Amino acid sequence: MQDSQFGLISIIMAAYNAEQTLGQAVTSVLNQTYPNFELLIIDDCSKDNTLAIAEKFRENDKRVRVIQNMQNSGVSYTRRHGLEEAKGEWIAILDSDDAWASDKLEKQIKLQKETGGDLLYTGSAFMGSEGDPINWYLSAPPQIGYRKLLKQNLISNSSALVRKELYEKYYVSGDNMHEDFAVWLGILKSGKFAYGVDEPLLIYRLSKTSKSGNKFKAAKMNWNTYRYMGLNVFSSFYYECWYIVKGLLKYRNLK
């Protein structure tokens, strides 16, 4: 894709002790067919070689920027730090242990031009903790509104492409809930819709040590997200039941 008139996309990548996976994640960004982006790697005071690996990529590609937190601060603060440094009108997020298909941004840009959407997402493929592919993918419905999203967060954080002004307006810091879920809910609650490319353009790494890898902790964080959004106990319980059922069906395919 040679046309870069869509504008600059700022890709935020929070990284902490990610030396084993950072290279794959960054390479998948640099291989994008849409070239007009900046990649912000924000190191959260890693204790391994994460920073050195990031600096090597920066030396070889001027689109890469490396930023350091002053102290270890957690992922939601680290993403906010990246947001404060971002220069683009659009934000994409890629976790340092995930990866993209090379045409991920290009296909989302095409869909944005067709729909005029402010929040876009894709389907997700999956890999094990060692990078081994899993033969199943999570499809992306063509359109999601607020009520539908409450039942299941189908907008994977690393698949999102969102207008910066909206991401800033609804950004949430707090590692005791699914902060990305809260951001998407805030945007859609305002009356907007999210639009999906039903292709596995995100490759999501499954890890038992991640926040979402601990199922009990993830369920509690999901509950906290509903409560943060202002849902009462009864509504939260209703949607939490949907979350549990949808989650069981999803992870049955990932075994």
Describe the protein in words.
The protein is of the alpha/beta class and 255 residues long. Helices cover 40% and strands 22% of the residues. The protein is built from nine helices and ten strands. Strands 1, 2, 3, 4, 5, 6, 7, 8, 9 and 10 form a ten-stranded mixed sheet that branches. Strand 1, helix 1 and strand 2 form a beta-alpha-beta unit. Helix 8 packs antiparallel against helix 9. The longest helix is centred in the C-terminal third of the chain and has 20 residues. The radius of gyration is 17 Å and the shape is globular. The model has no long low-confidence stretch (mean pLDDT 93).
Shape: globular
Number of beta strands: 10
Low-confidence parts, pLDDT < 50 over ≥5 residues? none
Beta content comes to 15-25%
Number of helices: 9
Quaternary organization: single chain
Q: Radius of gyration, rounded? A: 17 Å
Largest sheet report: 10 strands, mixed
Helix content: 25-40%
Structural class, judged by helices and strands? alpha/beta
The helix/strand series, from N terminus to C terminus, equals: EHEHEHEEHEEEHEHHEHH
**Mean pLDDT across residues:** 93
The first-to-last residue Cα distance is 37 Å
Main attributes of the structure:
single chain; 255 residues; alpha/beta; 10-stranded mixed beta sheet; globular
Write the layout of secondary structure elements.
Blueprint: E1 9-15, H1 22-30, E2 37-43, H2 50-60, E3 64-68, H3 75-85, E4 90-93, E5 99-100, H4 104-115, E6 119-127, E7 133-138, E8 143-144, H5 146-151, E9 161-163, H6 164-170, H7 179-189, E10 194-205, H8 215-228, H9 233-252
Parallel strand pairs: 1-2, 1-4, 2-3, 6-10
Antiparallel strand pairs: 4-9, 5-10, 6-7, 6-9, 8-10
Helix pairs in contact: 8-9
